[in-house]
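Quick start: what a row looks like.
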Amino acid sequence: MNKIKIWIVILPIISGWAVLSKDPDCKKIKNGEFYFYPPDNTGPFKFVRKDSIQYEIDLQTKDTSIWKLQWLSNCLIKSNFISITKELPKEMIAFFNDHTIYLEIMEVTEKYYRFKIIPDSLTSKLIYTDTAWFNPK
């Protein structure tokens, strides 16, 4: 009987912790169109994601970059540059080709998802966070 009382007390605590520590449901963002508004007023951009390929379209100039995506887990993406329609300096193309970008989804809501960009290594200290929207603003 005492064991039952202990479980009655512990089970809600364990259940609550499991809900709080749960990763966001990223299935909603594996495919679709998303809108990104950088704080430096470049863009806006539309991301068109088709599971393992992402097109990043500058909505002002229509320049488009293409990225290969590898889903490492439910909410962690490894991305590598494939190409861009805009003519870029050779050094910039070399930079894109030499670096891997990790994208970690931190939160998914009805209107947007929040993400973290981590260059080259998941242990990198250089981290950028922002928001992508499901509909244009």
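That is the whole record. Residues 110 and 134 are 8 Å apart (CA to CA). Residues 11-21 have pLDDT under 50 and may be disordered.
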